[in-house]
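[job 4471] stage=fold_predict status=RUNNING
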Amino acid sequence: MKFKIKSSKVLQTGAIVASLFFGQSCNLAVLDEQVVSGIGNNYLNTTSGFNDGVNAVYSTLREWYGTERGNNFTIFGTDTYQNGADGSHKFINTYDGGLDARSSHVREVWDLLYQGINAANAVIDRSANVTGISDVLKKQRIAEVKFLRAHYYFNLTQIFGGVDLRLTETVAPTKVATRATIPQMYTAIIKDLEESIPDLENRARSGDYGRVTRPAAEHLLARVYLTKATSAAKATDDYAKAETLAKSVINNYGIKLTSDYALVHKEGNEKNEEVIFSVQYTGNPLTNGGGNNSHVFFLMEYDNMPGMQRDIANGRPFKRYKPTLYTLNQVFVNRTDDSRYYKTFKDVYYSNKPGKYNTNYDKSKASITLALGDTSIFDPGYEMPAVERAKRPYQVLTPSMYDERRFPALRKHIDGARADRTQFSGTRDYIAFRLAESYLIMAEAQFKQGKIADAVGAINVVRRRAAWPGKQAAMEITSADLTMNFIMEERERELLGEQMRWFDLNRWGVLVERVKLYNPQAAPNIKDFHTLRPLPQNQLDRVEGGVSAFPQNPGY
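[job 4471] inference complete, writing structure tokens
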């Protein structure tokens, strides 16, 4: 078997194998200029080949985090986001039958995650033959790879249910595949993570920034137990284990919340003290692969409004994801004490195309005249009366004017470091795990165990950080305030748009219920079977025995 290899740097060091799964290539990061091809099968048994293989397993993270498929599968079809005006994958939000076994996202997620899994299997299987590297470092790298394999299988399990569980290298094409049970999937995922934890770096972040460390594995395992607790594999101690792991992340590594919620996703501050694990991207267009694309999906159509044109700072607006009325009116209802609404959504646009314009949506005045840098659009987030809007020398966008093109834009992923206003491949690291979620995981696990006072304390840590200055006491909740619905909403106040909501609703068992209540585009079509995605047709076609050996998920 031959591997095609691109000499690369990832995690600021070493080289990446571009392909370990049947010779198919992946998008990688931080490429050097040198390209080496036709490397023999034994290369993975060498020290440099081993290191390249480890880094190749990391590269699959970029096929999920910050991509269109990763966002569509987690943001669309939930209670907090619906589709905006544009995009060819609206059916993922509307559940109208367009998402089927032939859908490109289904096929891509399946194939790409399995490429990462087989790369991981190859590294683990070949590691015994690798010399020239210390046992300690080899164990650490294998632990990183086991974390990544567990992560990829965890995603596959949440998306598709039980899948083909392969824990050894596939060295030749095969038509034999079977679907593992949910308990079998969780047994494998948990085993990988538990085995990885002792050998990972025992600190907040690696000196080789971007590598998996012990708190990252503990955080992921806590999330796994929280999800397992409502699955067919549930056990009575799942919540207790999730609590213990989250508490370790919080207490043992010096990781801390940023002082201000706005700093978590501030451009240029991606390596902040709250980050547990992030997926790296780069500003070099030759080495960024597909890039972090999240910057385009959450933006409104500002560039066709008077006084505005598309620029780098405000972003390339794909207007894919529009927040639901539930998000705006219920999740973020408290804006007096809680700063997260205004620090989550963009409320002001400054004119980059000065001139005199007729107004088009704010009819409280007939025209506006804008100089460069003047406020052009102000979105206060509430229904400002016309008499008040008329006093403003710019257009005021109020909730009654929102539509599929105009709506509050998410700030978190805006990328002003791109080379030009059309660049799709974003450059910012994607923050995958952060400490605020560790607190929320711990609080949910405590709540489920009846430790209400402890859960309240954990949530109040997150809420005090989110408070406007002087409002910390007003942000604190009591035991009487804490319900499962409150936990569901608090996670979105903190984590909106961070590729988690569909998974959360699913593990809580409320996906169908809440989509019917809060997502008007999806409500007529969503059915109970939509808690799993369809298996890709290319997988079904290539399995010996067809659907009788490898059955499709119900409903598709």
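[job 4471] summary: The longest strand covers residues 31-39.
[job 4471] exit 0
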